[in-house]
Amino acid sequence: AAGMFLRLLSDVRWQAAHPKWRRITCSWRSTSSTAEPAPVPLPAEAQVVICGGGIMGTSVAYHLSKMGWKDVVLLEQGRLAAGTTRFSAGIVSTGRHLSLELKMADYSNKLYQQLEQETGVSTGYVKTGSISLAQTQDRLISLKRIASSLNVMGIPCEIITPKQVAQLHPLINIHDLVGAMYVPEDALVSSANVSLALATAASRNGVQIHERTSVSHVSIQKGRVTGVETDRGQIKCQYFVNCAGQWAYELGHSGKEPVHIPLHACEHFYLLTHPLKEPLASNLPTIVDPDGRIYIRNWQGGILSGGFEKNPKPLFTEGRNQLEIQNLQEDWDHFEPLLSALLRRMPDLEALQIMQLVNCPESFTPDMRCIMGESPTVRGYFVLAGMNSAGISYGGGAGKYLAEWMVNGYPSENVWPLDLKRFGTLQSSRTFLRHRVMEVMPLMCDLKVPRWDFQTGRQLRTSPLYDRLDAQGARWMEKHGFERVKYFVPPGTDLLDLEQSKTFYKPDWFDIVGSEVKCCKEAVCVIDMSSFTKFEISSTGDEALENLQYLFSNDLDVPVGHVVHTGMLNEKGGYENDCSIARLSKRSFFMISPTDQQVHCWAWLKNRLPDDSNLTLEDVTWKYTALNLIGPRAVDVLSELSYAPMTPEHFPSLFCKEMSVGYANGIRVMSITHTGEPGFVLYIPIEYALHVYNEVMNMGQKYGIRNAGYYALRSLRIEKFFAFWGQDLDAFTTPMECGREFQVKLEKGMEFIGQEALLEQKQNGVYKRFTMFILEDHDTDTDLWPWWGEPIFRNGRYVGKTTSSAYSYTLERHVCLGFVHHFDEKTGEELVVTADFINNGDYAIDIAGQRFQAKAKLYPFSSLFAQRRRKDEEELSGYQRE
Amino acid sequence: FYLTPPQVNSILKANEYSFKVPEFDGKNVSSVLGFDSNQLPANAPIEDRRSAATCLQTRGMLLGVFDGHAGCACAQAVSERLFYYIAVSLLPHETLLEIENAVESGRALLPILQWHKHPNDYFSKEASKLYFNSLRTYWQELIDLNSGETTDVKEALVNAFKRLDNDISLEAQVGDPNSFLNYLVLRVAFSGATACVAHVDGVDLHVANTGDSRAVLGVQEEDGSWSAVNLSYDHNAQNEHEVKRVRMEHPKSEEKNVVKQDRLLGLLMPFRAFGDVKFKWSIDLQKRVIESGPDQLNDNEYTKFIPPNYHTPPYLTAEPEVIHHKLRPQDKFLILATDGLWETMHRQDVARIVGEYLTGVHHQQPIAVGGYKVTLGQMHGLLAERRARISSVFEDQNAATHLIRHAVGNNEFGTVDHDRLSKMLSLPEELARMYRDDITIIVVQFNSHVI
């Protein structure tokens, strides 16, 4: 059966006889009768070795060679495009939730369109368009959000009525539809041929391609790739690219130093039919029916239809030496729900004759996003895999980004959401992956609502207070494997169950979080923030200070006991990390960064700190439990517990001191809260965590203390215009662009990374500006809530996207944070963004196609808050006197 | 009297037990994936027993079912003790020495077995000291006998069976100063039990059988269908070899009486068993032990009764027949069950039901389109029909439970009939034994990825 598919899906066959790849068009029969030619010997050395001849490997080879890296060898264990790529349904669709993914798909589409002309290889590219159907209003909202994104990207797209759907496709039953999204430029390709075309172009550019050569492991010395061991000998190389698809995990684990690539394959089914009596036109749009969990495309006059079932079947082939993917067993009973959905959508197909049910593996990742980038532990080891069944859509763009990454040191876009370093070893347990991919695959079709949390693979990392907080009604979310509290459900409150609380509108926890926020403003709350990444850097001499001064933009040569907020910038001045650093002693520093920085920040520092035995870097994340005491009464609670005055005169803001709390000594207290509210964070050695928590709660009782969660924190920080790394800040954002010049000391008397770029920005101005928007005509109870990624319009023209949003309980309005650009009206060229430009404009935020007026601000409402707080304090103290 | 489906389920599931061999980083490197076991009583109290344990000092896993008769004492004792005898027989000389030295110097003992027990599977606390001493004597002898040769599993199994039966017999002859224990060892010796034990170590599967319980291997053929392979021979009158063997062991004059009405001496169904000293001891010995024994023993008509035509004991042995089988990828599971199951179902049906249950395919065959002309509509209809058929199967999480459901509830069409199940399970205690026997089942699942 596998042979037949090769014939059906690809019309082009290849032969490796010629040293430079030559295209030989002939029928599959004549190729199969040709004797296998003797393999060309492998080179002894190459700059880059790519493992995997699927769409990813060939795309990386194509782009590397285009960018001038010609000394590239591509190894394929079987034949080119014979793995998942061969079985791919060949749908190129740009309608993606993440704008980065959308850009990758758009680039792929444009690349494939001209590929046949460029290479002479027929790619089967047909611009059919695609129609995504909505059976429910919520689905339509989800599609409208994507449509907004596509439109501002300049990709044609419209929301259409069921009647219009019927006009575009003759077979569709529209009775249960409420609307649809039409993307006219989406396309179909023969995926194997696209891959072969890319290989042809790459080989013309000098890339050497060797089939039937499998990599046994990658040689590593001193944390760098030095070569590749294959079944046909060794190749020395500086760079290795793992594009091994479903085998990427095993390949990553095959060497002495494992590279963790968390992905796992599931069986994926689609159906092929014989042609209809009146064969379907090859330009008939592809149908995606996410509520029915299926997609349907035209295929050789008949249809190809597959889907993402609720009960996926993970593959158990790990460790097996399987050269090419065999067509796995057909399982009709498993396919039954998808077949029902297909016949419900296109009832006229009942009489259509089945050709085959194809079962092919697809690799899925723990967060439904692909994996790209350099290993945090092995330099020169790059990865591109885990496409979550969108390999053809992403292939071109992803290959381009990875090639840019290798050649230029970083891609042209912020690819953090796809960066391999967002994962650590903790996501690479096989059991975890199996459980998680069983959740991820159905999620391909599930409604993606705000604040969705994965349900599998949970409770891996927890604070020592986990059970305690859970018993008090904590509801949890997960970040980097760590359980964090969203909010506390008061006893006796009934929240909707999980399924029902999926909403694009006002969520059921609105009042709960509101009361937590109120308590933070008026009394004091405790938030367990143990998940934050914590490093200690110390040295015997001044090495720690000297190195940190170079790595961080703020001045760290502060008196002992001071805390500094600073960016860890790249050469372009962009934020690689945003952290708070306390100077514990002259020679040691304590660094706090976001939870998901654990792997990235460690790799960044390790790669840049000198190999000096006097200098030690230690990850102490697990050693401390962090309790954030937020609110005006935090001072009182802490001073009573420590018998030490904690007022601003004695303990100013941005200060750090070891003190005793209750019986426990050596608690690191810092006067920061990550919210802009007054308060402290207590870093508690974990064995004291329960004791200190109990003491704080007991003592806090008379000050009205209560537990709070991250949703309250989020609302507080967003209304205070606090940017968070990973949401608002990324490697393409500089401090100058988000109003944080004050955290940069250009004249600290020492050179630091990013200094030049920042100096230039200081002189020439910035091209985007972090801005706060307050929604004006938005009804919190009845309107759609903003999330993030909503387009921002200034005077009716698109200027950027939001990066985060929250309801401000103080302002009683929604606040969105985002970046404003200034595109030239004629040329589209990016211009300098000035404060005047921001301030003189009428703004609107587009939420799923509906625009809401918004007021733009470059600074938080500090005066308003100050007044309010003073007034509140008066009220509160008046109340206490009574 | 009618039982609702949840009531039926709670009866069927009361004794179910499952064990999964722990995985290492998601990978199970053992040839055994795990097992499901369950038992359904007909006697009150049930006379069947089951055991499962992992050998800690050697590799391998032991599983066994034990069918008691004339009370449950012997089956209980064998279920507690036999695996220790087997494990000790398998131990290398050094380990035996180490264990003996530890006992001698009062140090902590190396654990020999890790048991996988249902809460209802109990061990007798009172007899543990006595049992331990007998076991120790056994390993001391093994140490003295040190042959220097590596232990053959087959031999070890045979030795363990015989030795335990011997110890049971000896303990009853010697007696115990403690009156409770004294009565216990006598009850153990005068009751009987069959045993069917599997030892799995990698691809080596040994089945040692004494009596009429049975081990059947579930094999998946290339076309996906299931077949059953016997891995034990029943020791009863239906087995010609057994009949011949028993007759051969006694003078020609007894030929007619040794096997009568398909029973040993016209009395006993299984031709091999533990205990049952009434078929092993001389008449003198039996009389002596009973007379010196406690009153309860003397009041018991059964124990006092000497089998007719009892001339040349022993008539019965506990020596097992051992079959060795090298596991192949198509060997998917092993079923150990007491005769209560085999009386009601043919082994082919048993293999099919378990096979379909374990693979999750509750239909005879997976559908394949192949070269046929099938339309989407026809396929849709076919699938819908198949889905409707399977409904009841999902109630069971345990293959042994699923099998019992079929054994008790199958109607003439081979499908589970709830009314029948309800009737069979609501029979009063005294009637239950007339319609069915105790059923005990262990289903061991093999790991095809490793084999």
TrEMBL record, chain A:
Localization annotation: Mitochondrion matrix
Main location class: mitochondrion
Lineage: superkingdom: Eukaryota
UniProt xrefs under InterPro entries: FAD-dep_OxRdtase (IPR006076), FAD/NAD-bd_sf (IPR036188), FAO_M (IPR032503), GcvT/YgfZ_C (IPR029043), GcvT_C (IPR013977), GCVT_N (IPR006222), Rhodanese-like_dom (IPR001763), TrmE/GcvT-like (IPR027266)
GO cellular component: mitochondrial matrix
Keywords: Mitochondrion, Transit peptide
A Pfam family matched in the record: FAO_M
Database matches in SUPFAM superfamilies: Aminomethyltransferase beta-barrel domain, FAD-linked reductases, C-terminal domain, FAD/NAD(P)-binding domain, Folate-binding domain
Rhodanese domain sequence ranges: 48-88
Record bears the keyword Ubl conjugation: no
Family annotation (PANTHER family): PYRUVATE DEHYDROGENASE PHOSPHATASE REGULATORY SUBUNIT, MITOCHONDRIAL, SARCOSINE DEHYDROGENASE-RELATED
Role played: Decreases the sensitivity of PDP1 to magnesium ions, and this inhibition is reversed by the polyamine spermine.
Family: Belongs to the GcvT family.
Quaternary structure and partners: Heterodimer of a catalytic (PDP1) and a regulatory (PDPR) subunit.
UniProt name for this protein: Pyruvate dehydrogenase phosphatase regulatory subunit, mitochondrial
Gene encoding the protein: Pdpr
From TrEMBL, chain B:
MF annotations from Gene Ontology: [pyruvate dehydrogenase (acetyl-transferring)]-phosphatase activity; metal ion binding
Positions of the PPM-type phosphatase domain: 32-446
Gene Ontology cellular-component annotations: mitochondrion
Classification via InterPro entries: PP2C, PP2C_BS, PPM-type-like_dom_sf, PPM-type_phosphatase-like_dom
UniProt keyword Transferase, yes or no: no
Record keywords, A-Z: Acetylation, Calcium, Hydrolase, Magnesium, Metal-binding, Mitochondrion, Protein phosphatase, Transit peptide
Catalytic activity: O-phospho-L-seryl-[pyruvate dehydrogenase E1 alpha subunit] + H2O = L-seryl-[pyruvate dehydrogenase E1 alpha subunit] + phosphate
Cofactor: Mn(2+); Mg(2+)
Pfam families linked to this entry: PP2C
Coiled-coil boundaries: none
Enzyme class: hydrolase
Localization in the cell: Mitochondrion
EC annotation from Swiss-Prot or TrEMBL: 3.1.3.43
Annotated function: Mitochondrial enzyme that catalyzes the dephosphorylation and concomitant reactivation of the alpha subunit of the E1 component of the pyruvate dehydrogenase complex (PDC), thereby stimulating the conversion of pyruvate into acetyl-CoA.
Family (UniProt): Belongs to the PP2C family.
Subunit composition and interactions: Heterodimer of a catalytic (PDP1) and a regulatory (PDPR) subunit.
Protein name: [Pyruvate dehydrogenase [acetyl-transferring]]-phosphatase 1, mitochondrial
Species of provenance: Caloenas nicobarica
Gene coding for it: Pdp1
